[in-house]
Amino acid sequence: MDTMTLSALAEPNRMRIVELLRDRPHNVSEIANQLWLRQPQVSKHLRVLHEAGLVDVHPAAQQRIYQLQAKPFEELDCWLETFKRVRETRIDSLDNYLRELKN
Amino acid sequence: MDTMTLSALAEPNRMRIVELLRDRPHNVSEIANQLWLRQPQVSKHLRVLHEAGLVDVHPAAQQRIYQLQAKPFEELDCWLETFKRVRETRIDSLDNYLRELKN
DNA sequence: AGTGAATATACCTGTCAAGGCATATAACAA
DNA sequence: TTGTTATATGCCTTGACAGGTATATTCACT
């Protein structure tokens, strides 16, 4: 799994931005107003999100419309699937491990 | 979504530890050897993972067996589901947004 | 051309987190 | 007890990163 995606999402304000964009696309100042952030910080966060491939941009006049990109979420979903086995075999795994220790 | 989970996973070495624990539980020195990390750093990373609820510990003699915990992965899964709508309505959302801009 | 709005960037500063290393703690063994 | 193994913690240094503020850039409009 690409840790760049996760570190981009791990910052609280970026998380808020992503959850805002989940509903619909937004331009920069809309995000700044909605989330009570200053415009430069929003631009910087969007830059990080863009470099992580989490959003893409559509220029419209002086404005820039930011929108979520599906790919990283799908990749995260795939990665998470590899943990589904863990959810059932936890106790068995530990038992087996402890049993091996005794040998 | 809890950003603590994400920031714990966002650190590359912790990600490697988690992916190692996905297969089966491990004790500290096993992790250190497998991943070519020094023991103190492994302990520190495990501490972070533990505080984030991603792992739990089972003492066995002097050793401590670390194992993945299912809950945070399930929560991440739930959160990801809220983005499934995005994957289909991307183009429509943008069109609608641009249409509103013209008014 | 000149003005204003929307956005990006540069620079500074403070904070936090990761690695390295030494050392403390705890449990077992002889 | 003493030594040995497994693990945790403390301290230090360094690098990354987020916020604040000022400024640059880009486009539209008159």
- CATH fold call of chain A: Arc Repressor Mutant, subunit A
What is the number of beta strands of chain A? 3
- SSE succession of chain A: HHEHHEEHH
Low-confidence stretches of chain A: none
Give the termini separation of chain A.
Answer: 35 Å
- In the sheet with the most strands of chain A, the strands line up as 1-3-2
Mean pLDDT of chain A: 95
**Largest inter-chain interface?**
A-B, 37 and 37 residues
Descriptive notes:
- The relative contact order of chain A is 0.14.
- The first copy, chain A, is α+β, with helices and mostly antiparallel strands and 103 residues long.
- The first copy, chain A, has a 3-stranded antiparallel beta sheet.
- Helices cover 66% and strands 14% of the residues of chain A.
- In chain A, helix 3 crosses helix 4 (39-51).
- Chain A has a single domain (3-101), classed as Arc Repressor Mutant, subunit A (Orthogonal Bundle).
- In chain A, a hairpin with a 2-residue loop joins strand 2 (55-60) and strand 3 (63-68).
- The structure holds a DNA duplex (30 and 30 nucleotides).
